[in-house]
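Exercise 3.2. Students should predict the tertiary structure of the chain below and write it as structure tokens, then compare their answer with the key that follows.

Predict this chain's 3D structure.
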Amino acid sequence: MKRFAASLLLLLAAGQAQAQNPTYQVGTTTLTLSTLTTGLNTPWELLWGPDNFLWMTERGGRISRINPTTGQLTPLLTIADVTQAGESGLLGMAILPSLTLPAIPQYSVFVVYTYTNNGTLKEKLVRYYYDELLGMINPVVVLDNLPATNIHSGSRLLILADRTLLMTTGDASNTSLAQNPQALNGKVLRLNPDGTVPTNNPTAGSLVYTLGHRNPQGIARVAATGRIYSSEHGANNDDELNLIEPGRNYGWPTVEGFCNLPAEQAFCQANNVREPLTAWTPTRAVAGLTYYNHPAIPQWANTLLLVSLKAGALTTLPLNASGDQLGTPADLWAGTYGRLRAICVSPQGRVYLSTSNRDGRGAPAATDDRIFVLENRAYSPTATQAARAATWQLYPNPAAADLPAELNLPPLSTTATLELTDGQGRRLWHETLAARQQSVRLPASAPGLYLLRLRTPDGQEQYARLLRR
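Answer key:
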């Protein structure tokens, strides 16, 4: 009897584990879905950061980093002037690493959100600087005073290869704005990081990259081809998946979906309208969009991954080689986990996606909102990755200005040079470290932010920051 009871408990435990980590079959590849983080409130953006952490916005105004292995969440900032109203609040985010000292976590972080100006809801784009010691600092308004409402405010952000920025905007429930070339709503905008107009935009002096959009909710770029794709909410019909081409018109509000009605055909011919690659009726509230091309899931090579809110689906959209046509869309699931809004892919080929069940239109579970990980656990990369450089152990940091700090390293295999420079790049102190040396005392220095640089004879460098207070 005791053996039977024990066996039963093991079977029940196995069944619970399977229910908690469901699997999905994609050809011969088995994908496992697991929960990474719970207890969130309407995640809006999910990015794989240059620091190999997940970065997330929540609609109420919080920006966080999430450890992709443990799920531990580190809040970075809650933006005080975010106004969350209906579908509006803190929305899209994009991260632009610094061109200098790339080994040091220092980025421009762009976020778009709605705020209240003299009692009226508006939308703006703000750039923060992120420093590993100082956090999110120095906010600068890049673009503001865009009309906004509690619906149709977009907005996703995307950094292009030339370090310009794309920003999608909804029509703010004013359909006339989408076709007005002077208005910034109902558009995909392209701007320099400082908010100025790129010299090669389709119209000189204008931020407008494309027009005729209702409410774009996803944007992605394929590096190999340079092609850009966007998902867009339709009204009562024709959610769209668009290929974004500079200077093109996407039809709204005259054209919904394809140019297949007489009035639409005339408008399309006269206004350089680009038809969608595909459209969905009934609508699914298509949202986050990303690109997949990793050997961990070979069946998804050269494929767009799309999540949707109303349908609650993860949809695969295979591309042809040139990227201008789609194969047959397919849902991996639909409705199983509620509303899905954001999605991204890690360099290891794992897919991260978030629910949006606390956005006022879902039926949240006790652990919602959540971030899931979808992965092929049987995948092992064949290429050998280079070993990471030794990790700094700098203590204390921040450090008192009038006291030395202690730097600890794993044993060095060779001699190395260590130098301390100030914020203007002036060398204040240096020392040659012996092979196998494991520690060094750094001198006291005035309050400020300092850079430590370790150089080995083979040309390798490591960096760390020291904050003196």
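Discussion points: Confidence is low (pLDDT under 50) at residues 1-18, 383-390. The longest helix spans residues 2-20.
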